[in-house]
Design a protein that fits this description.
The complex is a heterodimer of chains A (292) and B (158).
Chain A lengths: L1 H26 L5 H10 L10 H16 L10 H16 L12 E5 L6 E4 L3 E5 H6 L3 H16 L2 H4 L3 H13 L8 H25 L3 H18 L5 H9 L7 H4 L3 H8 L9 H14 L3
Parallel strand pairs in A: 1-3
Antiparallel strand pairs in A: 2-3
Helix pairs in contact in A: 1-2, 3-9, 4-6, 4-10, 6-10, 6-11, 8-9, 11-13
Chain B lengths: L1 H14 L8 E4 L3 E5 L8 E6 L3 E8 L2 E6 L2 E6 L3 E2 L17 H7 L5 H10 L4 H11 L5 H10 L8
Antiparallel strand pairs in B: 1-4, 1-7, 2-3, 4-5, 5-6
Classes of the chains: A mainly alpha (292), B alpha+beta (158).
């Protein structure tokens, strides 16, 4: 009850403040001292939630480039597998209203390594390893893998990994020149350093340390909702997690909670009525692309 | 867990600003399709681009009924922002957007910051070209619809 009350008050305050500040902007000259102060205050940003979609897109591009530059994650060049992964991934996006639609759109890539892993870059670029694709034995299980990554993007876990100090510094440089048309060379150089550090924060989290247990479990829950929303078997997620637990150490197992914990945290299975004929068609086309 | 997801939804809603009828919204995607109905596969009425201004008519769940110039249609809530100072990249911004509005809105992490980052990290150039290659790919609505129908995930005609 107390949490609800606080949230409601916060919501009302934010909406009221936003409206008042917008009205003040309309009522003042952009070139007056008051106008510049009000416009500067309107542009104050504090947390990752204040990053706009296009900014998330450019951060995500650099995160993906950093991952693809690592010798252990070369990009695979199998057109039929990628085209299939894209269709399954876009199918999840197109059939769920709760999916966040990023600046460009979701894009998918396959990494040529047996390591079991996947990376959801901010802005919707999702990289999945051949090792993880091999652990998904059916289309519904592949959908579960991709739904988990789409959930990370939707929940904005990537940009949430940026250290607050780097965000504060970035917003400081961006806000400092609010009255000028462009950033000075000096501010651009400093901003680039902060951008570099922010990208490093995310890459470090994705590749080495992993998201928090809570973030992973939230992505699992949302992924299961997405699967049900599209019409895939929501239990596909538990099945592929079960198979991952026997895939050896490293990769996803080093950066994620234990698969057994994740299966337990999923709780009771969601209701699902399988259409045997449709499932058979999906299984057949999956088998045609991935010969196990 | 549900409470956390609820709180997150609230934060996302606040981040996009108030959304009352007649609010002005700004398109935040490079390109979005204004749909004739409130679902992603509905036929497109028009394409809108980053920076285009829309007027909100009403909200139904995650979908917003909007007016763009003389056209009316539906957009998903995550395709627009009600913030007056939303940062735009300039990549999809139409020519009708004024240069002063563009320069103010572009003061964020944008193509110029990426360019500076790439100059600082030349070893990433090959990887950036791979990113470009992946981001240039797309699946058409027709292809995707056919794929979903074949897999029993969408009914014919939906």
């Amino acid at each position: 009850m107390r949490t609800k009350l606080v949230c409601t008050l916060l919501a009302l305050s934010a909406i009221a403040c936003g409206t008042v500040m917008s009205t003040l902007e309309d009522a003042t000259d952009a070139n007056s001292v008051e106008g510049k102060l009000i416009r500067g205050a309107n542009r104050l940003r504090k947390s990752f939630q204040d990053l706009d979609p296009s900014e998330e897109h450019f951060i995500g591009r650099s995160v993906a480039a950093e991952i693809l530059a690592l010798p252990r994650y070369p990009l695979a060049d199998d057109e039929s597998q990628l085209a299939y992964v894209e269709r399954v991934g876009h199918g999840i996006v197109a059939t769920n209203d709760d999916v966040l639609l990023p600046f460009l759109d979701y894009r998918f890539g396959i990494l040529a390594t047996d390591e079991v892993n996947a990376f959801a870059c901010p802005g919707g670029l999702i990289l999945v390893t051949r090792g993880l694709l091999a652990a998904a034995r059916t289309e519904d299980e592949l959908a579960a893998v991709l739904a988990h990554e789409v959930a990370h993007v939707t929940l904005r876990h990537g940009v949430a990994a940026i250290k607050q100090a780097n965000l504060t510094a970035a917003f400081g440089y961006l806000g400092a020149g609010a009255a000028q048309a462009t950033l000075s060379d000096e501010d651009m150089a400093k901003l680039t350093d902060v951008f570099d550090d922010s990208v490093s924060d995310i890459v470090q989290t994705l590749v080495t340390s992993g998201y928090s247990r809570d973030a992973e479990l939230a992505a699992d829950q949302l992924a299961r909702q997405f699967l049900a929303g599209t019409g895939y078997d929501p239990q596909g997620l538990a099945r592929v997690l079960g198979r991952m637990s026997s895939s050896g150490a490293g990769g996803m197992l080093a950066t994620h909670p234990a698969p057994e914990d994740r299966i337990e945290a999923l709780g009771s299975p969601l209701a699902y009525v399988a259409d045997a004929a449709a499932t058979a068609k999906r299984d057949a086309r999956h088998a045609a692309v991935f010969a196990h | 867990m549900k409470r956390r997801l609820g709180l997150l939804a609230l934060v996302v809603l606040l981040a996009s600003g108030a959304q009352d009828p007649n609010d002005t919204l700004t398109v935040t995607r490079k390109m979005a399709k204004l749909r004739g109905e409130k679902r992603l596969f509905a036929p497109a009425v028009a394409e809108v681009h980053e920076g285009d201004k829309l007027v909100l008519e009403k909200r139904e769940g995650a979908w917003l009924a909007v007016q763009f110039e003389k056209l009316k249609g539906w957009l998903h809530e995550s395709e627009v922002s009600a913030k007056p100072d939303v940062r735009l990249s300039g990549e999809g911004v139409s020519e009708t957007y004024t240069s002063s509005e563009t320069s103010a809105a572009r003061k964020g992490f944008n193509p110029e910051v990426e360019k500076s980052y790439r100059t600082k990290n030349p070893a990433l150039e090959v990887a950036f070209r791979l990113v470009d290659r992946l981001q240039a790919r797309a699946v058409s609505d027709d292809d995707l619809r056919a794929f979903l129908v074949e897999g029993g995930l969408l009914k014919e005609g939906q």
